[in-house]
Amino acid sequence: MKKGLIGKKIGMTQIFTEDGKVIPVTVVEAGPCVVTQKKTMENDGYEAVQVGFGDVKLNKLNKPMKGHFAKNDVAPKKTLKEFRLEDCSAVNVGDILKADTFAEGDVVDVKGTSKGHGTAGAIKRWNFSRLRESHGTGPVSRHQGSLGACSSPSRVFKGRKMAGHYGCEKVTVQNLTVAKVDAENNLIAIKGAIPGPKGGIVVIADAVKA
Length: 210
Known about the structure:
6-stranded antiparallel β-barrel, mainly beta, 210 residues, 9% helix, 4-stranded antiparallel sheet
């Protein structure tokens, strides 16, 4: 990984190319991010850079986090993420990373937490088909139906698609293209959709499989 940023999803819109084509994009407020710590091979066994995003009041932090920020003499940040960069020596504690870290045309992976749907049925959760609504089906047209088990094996196999908790999972969307960068306002327009609700925290990094 050469570069990465933490951002906040603003929402979706569309932009137009010079030849009049419409590109659906998701706008992300990427940065400013502050380097809060450097992990070294001597102290931690690996090299990485810890980056913070979003201001938070000091009285909202517990004692260990207050000491962590005070030790590195940086302002407290709400969200912390680590990036294993190829060249960690090029970044120092206190450096500010902004949206111009990425450029138009870059291919990136975006990680976020998907929208939570609570407890959902099999139709909404797994896209099952409905039962027919005639000939005595009754009030069960959105029920799951048979699970395929009989006297043998007399149980439901693990992993069976059923109703249950849906959403609120860590999701990575790969190989998205940066359509536009507004360095002045720290905004990045990414082609396509990214996981999470408006205001959700996302992580933008170089594409692994580009």
